[in-house]
Amino acid sequence: MAGHSKWNNIKNKKQAADAKRGKVFSQVAKQIRVATKEGASGDPQHNPALRTALEKARAANMPKDKIAAAIDKGLGKTKSGVSIARNVYEGFGPGGVGVIVTASTDNAQRTSADVKFVFSRAGGSLAGPGSAAYLFTISADNETYTPKQPMQAEPDVQSRISQMIDAFLELDDVDDVFVSIALEEGE
């Protein structure tokens, strides 16, 4: 009987546990990168947000090499010496909603392809630079985009936009997602 051995059961349980751990590690690594970037320091003594993120990493039993890599990425360094670039992607989601995605990446082609894939899966499209930016007011530090006139959307469009935002935030390189509609608090 194929698939009913003790080893197969152990393998399936291990795969499920590894997938959960990997997702937690990705989320914690993103928190470490953002805290390092915002605090402009890889030293937890001088960066309280990084200290909190490191406590979460230790609680999740995250390996030290992954923590160090996340800190280096937040500081703009990688093992191979490739610099981390900040990219801004613009597009339109379901219902013609303007979307801006910010990402920090060491491989712009991979990130661009990932962002384009999420747009296409959600029923939207990746657009050129400046195509959706006119819908937003950009903060002085070029980090935050606020909708100039938040549009109202149907509940089904709002739920699809929320699913698209979640899909973007699951990507490792994506830092933040801004939309030109007012999302309900539950979304």
Question: What does this protein structure show overall?
Answer:
The protein is an alpha+beta fold. It folds into 2 domains: 6-75, Orthogonal Bundle (Arc Repressor Mutant, subunit A); 85-179, Alpha-Beta Plaits, CATH 3.30.70.980. Helix content is 48%, strand content 17%. It has helices at 6-39, 48-59, 64-75, 108-122, 155-170, and strands at 85-92, 98-105, 125-127, 136-138, 145-147, 174-179. A 4-stranded antiparallel β-sheet has the order 3-1-2-6. A two-stranded antiparallel ribbon has the order 4-5. Strand 4 (136-138) and strand 5 (145-147) form a beta hairpin. Helix 1 packs parallel to helix 3. The N and C termini lie far apart (46 Å). 29% of the residues are buried. The model has no long low-confidence stretch (mean pLDDT 82).
Spatial gap, N to C terminus: 46 Å
| Helix-strand sequence | HHHEEHEEEHE
Nearest-integer average pLDDT: 82
CATH architecture field of the largest domain: 2-Layer Sandwich
Number of helices: 5
Structural class designation: alpha+beta
Strand order of the largest sheet: 3-1-2-6
Gross morphology is globular
- In the CATH scheme, what's the topology name of the largest domain? Alpha-Beta Plaits
Helix content: 40-55%
What about the largest sheet? 4 strands, antiparallel
Assigned CATH superfamily of the largest domain? YebC, transcriptional regulation domain
The residue ranges in which pLDDT falls below 50 over 5 or more consecutive positions are none
Domain unit count: 2
